[in-house]
Prior knowledge:
There is one protein chain. Helices cover 59% and strands 1% of the residues. By secondary structure, the protein is an all-alpha fold. Among the domains are: 7-116 and 132-166 and 501-534, no CATH class; 337-372 and 384-485, no CATH class. The strands form 2 sheets. Strands 1-2 form a two-stranded parallel ribbon. The longest helix is centred in the last third of the chain and has 34 residues, at 341-374. It starts with 9 loop residues before the first helix and ends in an 18-residue tail after the last helix. The model is unreliable at 1-7, 105-112, 122-132 and 380-384 (pLDDT under 50).
Amino acid sequence: MDGYVEADEVGPLTEELMNSLVELLVDVPVVNFTYALHLEALNTLLVLLSIQMFQPQSASKFITYKYIMEGRCSIHACLLVKALLRNYTAQQKCPPELYKHTSDANSMVASVAASLWSVMTLGMANKTEKTEAEYHETLLANQSLLFLLVLSNHCTTEFSLNNPYREALCSFTNSQDQSTPSPTQVAATFKFDFTDLYNSLCSSLRDDQSTLLLYLLIHQNASMKAFILSRTNIDQLVMPILKILYHAQDRNSHHIYMALIILLVLSEDEVFNKAVHEIILRDIPWFKDRHLTEISLGGLLIVVVIRTIQYNLTRMRDKYLHTNCLAALANMSAQFTDLHPYVSQRLINLFALLGKKHNKVIDMIREAALDDTEEQGKDSDVESEPDHMQDLAVLEEVIRMVLEIVNSCLTNNIHHNPNLVYTLLYQKDIFSQFRTHPTFQDLIQNLDTVLCYYSTKLEQHGSNMSPKEVLEVIIESSKTFRRDRLKKFPDLKFKYVEEDSPEEFFIPYIWSLVYHSSNMYFNAARIVLFSLSSS
Length: 535
């Protein structure tokens, strides 16, 4: 019968369809009347690969992934990744002819585009009235980015299918760079304008998917990482990341992790750590805790990361998040320069908060031990004590790292941080409970050396001094302070290492973003890859 397809023809037809869609994305330019066509091609490919959401097997077991990774589609890998990056970078808004009725009877193109738009949205576009601003969303950029993330994060292990899309994303280079590559440099898969990509990242770094793209580029693409670190306007990239962390209560934990890991990777570079203290911010409209003027980007970064630690202490209680926060601060600590009074206060207040929590946990352990003694011989539930001991171990690890960060700053840059010395003198009593503690004793000795030196200098000027006069004495006394009086500790250097089996984290995360952000319908009842309650 005409039109009948044999079962064994379905596979080849599916590959033919996928390859045709990929060729469309690569070969057909994006203009107003092809915008919806590109969207439909991307949506269809996402649907064909979405089997991962509904089946627990590895992606390499699915025929559609074999077609896209190693079939005819893979021939176009470099050009496809380049096209997807181009769509993302362009941030082109949805053309008005897709959602506006036209009175031009001859406008066949607009009519076809509007019909295709209705099909693509399953007729849902007409169910509720949308404002023009909502239609102006950069739909093609969003869908292109989601598809790029799907392509580059599946089949990444050595035992899976070859992934040419990830290889392309990790090794493309700057089209504006005219230098000759070194013999040891990995061959470029394609060239792209890094400046355009950087500017687009800076302007759209609000959602999970843009943050994930930045993470992939800065972690996997050495050329792009070097380009980002060389920017004189690095504040344009860092500020959106800090804004994400500042509004942590409105973000999912995965998004917070990605933002922190990006900061950690950036903090591995000493030039970055110096540069952030040379960029002065005049106004930060989204920072509501206190009106800040004339604060360095580095100072704001410290405050926001400390704020994230405190938020985690009270809400999330996640050791992994603590570790990343403190590692980033530790990497930067030797270059802390001219810390703002508010930054100094927040840093020392964090230590004070941790000290209070330490006392509270110690009290709970003592109470639990006392209850155990009283309840001996009786049936009792005493399983909470091990949790308290675990809390204490984590807390002491955090306290030591905070002390190491303060010590690193003083050891390397005490002459350029009078506000930190001022705050230490003002709150010197908070360190007394840890002076004889074996975990902190060596670090406290350095702090005592500093406190003793400056206290002696201040005593020589009498007791009725204004805060301004105290600060002036500290600045003057710093000129004669010998840093060799402080015990030298190893430099704090932490490097981000991706967890084993990264697919276990990234694949559910990316498909949850497709589910929530692609404007497409998926049957929630059939999803097994991730929990909708936690995604």
